[in-house]
Amino acid sequence: MKTVRIFYEKRGRLKFVSHLDMTRFMSRLLAKSKIPVWYTEGFNQHIYMNFALPLSLGFEGLYEILEIRLTDDGYDLNKCLEALKGVAPPDIDFISVDEPVTAMKDIGFATFRLDFDEIDQGLAKSLTDFFESDSVICQKAGKKGKIKEFDIIPKICSYEINGNRLILVVVAGNEDNLNPTLIMNAFFEKTGISPPFYTVSRVAIMDKQGNLFR
Amino acid sequence: MDTKKFEALLLSVQKPGRYSGGEIGSVIKDKQEVDVRFAFCFPDTYEIGMSHLGMKILYSQFNSRDDIWCERVFAPWQDFEEVMRRENIPLFALESRDPIKEFDFIGFTLQYEMSYTNVLNMLDLAGLPVRSADRQSLSPLVVAGGPCACNPEPIADFIDLFFLGEGEEVDLELIDLYKKFKAEGKSKKEFLIEAAKIEGVYVPSLYELSYNDDGTVAQITSNNAPATVKKRIIKDLNSAFYPEQLVVPYIEIVHDRVVQEVFRGCIRGCRFCQAGFIYRPVREKSSDTVNRQAKALCENTGYDEISLSSLSTSDYREIEPLLGKLLEWTQDSHISIALPSLRIDNFSDELLEKIKHIRKSGLTFAPEAGTQRLRDVINKNLTEDEILTACKTAFAGGYTAVKLYFMLGLPTETDEDLKGIADLGQKIVNLYYDMPNRPKGKSVSVSISVSTFVPKPFTPFQFEPQIDEQEIRRRQEYLKSCITTKKISLSYHDSATSFLEGVLARGDRRLGAVLEAAFKRGCKFDSWNECFCLEKWLDAFKECEISPEFYANRLRSFDEINPWDHLDYGVTKKFLVCENRLAHEAKTTPNCREKCSGCGAACYGEGVCFENR
User: Fold this and answer.
1) Nearest CA of chain B to the CA of A147: how many Å?
2) Which residues lie closer than 8 Å to A69 by C-beta, 6 or more apart?
């Protein structure tokens, strides 16, 4: 048995597929691909799948990672990639299949790209002021419905405004995670600016050292 | 439509996957390259419509032709409808996102009466007049089929033509005729008159209903059309079209698996069951065909579950060879098969050993009535012994939950019959605790689900009155009082919904005005409890000066002309009358394989009627 990671892009109409639906979709795709995938051996047997990070509904993912296990250690990874490409619908692109480099628990950060119709000077200034502020307290409902208060500023590692694009590097992973929607909602609430239309893409996932997660 | 704006709007509603399209298996064509665009509309949500087998078959079949592009349309849920109306987005097809108003055909499948208001609402959302008479041009033609087309009168004012029976052949014949008439620049009226000549096509505007003083139908007259319209069937299911690919939804739908049809029709003849009569005669696929089709579908979709679909899969003659063939490849591919509950005790040891590994689905029985007397009245040939024996086998095999389906308000039903429902549940509970080899440390649960009987056209009970709402509630309360253990859970249907379903099922064309009035009052998704509002409907009846009780709660005489008497489903009225009489004598009728009862379906020259000849 061998663990491998599938790297792919999720775009277009697939943006509307939630994480839970993605797991069903991927298991059907893997079944169709005829790759020798390993099934769990419990009461309810299913294909072993481990997504690096879930992706919010409506987000594009340009660096998505799914971990599976192969029953055949010698199975050619290029063949694996070709098999996946053969069954992929439009809006999902399989980029590569590789052996894992970093452990899943070492995921530390994610990079998001937010595309606006226009970031004019006023908006750019407000964004800069917002990200440069000492603290922004946000509320978030926990799993048990308990409202939790926390400061988002320390969780934002960097921001960059580039034309009509805002690039954010934020904490990500099991221990700590920050959704850019939460940041932007806090921004619009704090500044009173009415939210313009923008799209969100997750472009990279990094480990705790800031290297590209592989 | 601007994709970016559209997608932004999608993110503002629940389950945007209902409207996004782009699923695997969905068909995209170049609209310049096709002659006919067909919008296949299911008048309910995506999750329900996508589970419907008929739509899957016709979608694939239409798209197998280069000159037709068939796309899917579902009723938008209220949140998205609000967005559509606010942003002036007309009802669109999922594949192209083009407004369906531009299409050649808008086809609805009518699976249940409570979806009628959604049909009107969808036409309105499309930007079309809801009434057929107000749509002058040849296209879009609004057509409809499905089981409710067997009495289409309540919705006849809104639909240009109906398909009676199975659609695979007649739909294409009609599309070909349309292509010809469109090319020749003919009018809608000319087309409809010609279309009515195709067997299985009912054009309501060519028929007129007149009424007696007491409100019953006096006469049904045809004008430029045949006096009766006969339903169509597919004679040989082994050679009939069946899809090799399905549209596989991203979001979870109600039946999220490969649905493999094994036969059409039912040999049983349960007297309340419309499907048991209108889909006659029984026609089976061979086990080889079923196996081949199921395998292709699993390979092309990636689904890990197959359900064998028919009205009564236990009656499939080749069930054992079929399971043998399926198990040869499904086990290694981690594919599970959903099996009918009852047949299990008849299987050979070898097969039992094999299906042991199949993932267990629930144990479900539909005795429909609580006493043997009433089961004889409805011709449900299922005995208490059979149920208890099957439960015993299942309990020994580790099952601890049983589901039972019943109906309340059946003709001749008494309180004793209702008590019988509770008693049967109790017997199953007792059976479990009397078994020394029951699963250790586990409790048993018996779920009893009780729906309300609604008399339907083309059944022996089409003459029967439906019990009124007050009586339904009294009987529900009585049944509740009969259940004394917490091991039994009881659920029942809303009485108001059943009442309206009863009105629409046996209604005539005068109900069109009521339907429109209800739609204008905002009625839609009537089959959803959170949307259904009886008050609005009652207001609509009042506005049109029509009594709903006339349709639901009245006993009809055998010689009364029914609003569906000009439609011929093979089964004769004489047979239905005879069956009704037997019901009142609590006499059963043997199933089609035991003895032919001469229902009339043999006129199709195919199927079970000729198995032993």
Assistant:
1) 23
2) A1, A2, A3, A4, A37, A38, A48
**Nearest residue of B to residue A115, measured between CA atoms:** B4
Going B365 to B369 to B374 to B379, the CA torsion angle's sign is negative
Q: The tokens 């309501």 sit on which residue?
A: B204
> Residue B501: helix, strand or coil by DSSP?
helix
Who's near B576: CB < 8 A, 6+ residues apart? Answer: B277, B458, B459, B460, B462, B463
Mean per-residue pLDDT over chain B, rounded: 93
Of B252, B299, B333, the CB nearest to A24: B252
pLDDT in tens, B329-380: 998 888 988 776 555 555 666 666 666 556 556 678 889 999 999 999 999 9
Q: What pLDDT, on a 0 to 100 scale, did the predictor assign at position B146?
A: 97
Residue B302 backbone class (left: φ over 0; alpha: ψ -120 to 50; beta: rest) = left
Of B92, B96, B143, B136, give the one whose Cα is nearest residue B119.
B143
The one-letter amino acid code at A159 reads Y
Q: Inspect the interface and report whether the beta carbons of B251 and A27 lie closer than 8 Å.
A: no
Report how far apart, in Å, the C-alpha atoms of B58 and of each of B143, B145, B243 are.
14, 11, 9
Tokens coding B276: 């048991």
Mention every residue, 6+ apart, whose C-beta is less than 8 A from residue B400. B432, B439, B442, B443, B444, B445
> Nearest CA to CA, how far is A55 from chain B (Å)?
14
ipTM of model: 0.88
| CA A6 to each of CA A15, A21, A74, A213, B329: distance values in angstroms, whole numbers, following the listed order | 18, 18, 17, 12, 28
Q: In chain B, what are the domains? A: 3-230 (3.40.50.280), 362-493 (3.30.750.200)
Element spanning A33, H or E: helix A19-33
DSSP states of B540-585:
HHHHTT--HHHHHSPPPPTTSBPTTTTEE-SS-HHHHHHHHHHHHT
Going along chain A from its start, the domains and CATH numbers come out as: 2-100 (3.30.70.580), 106-207 (3.30.70)
What are the tokens at A46? Answer: 């299913």
Rounded to a whole number, what is the distance in Å from the CA of A210 to chain B's nearest CA? 31
Predicted pLDDT of residue A42? 82
Interface test with B, best of A16, A49, A87, A185 (most B CBs within 10 A): A16
Q: Is A158 helix (H, G, I), strand (E, B) or coil?
A: strand
Residues of B in contact with A16 (CB under 8 A): 7, 10, 16-17, 20, 250
Please list the residues that pair with B489 across neighbouring strands: B447
**Considering only CB atoms, which chain B residues are within 8 Å of A21?**
17, 250-252
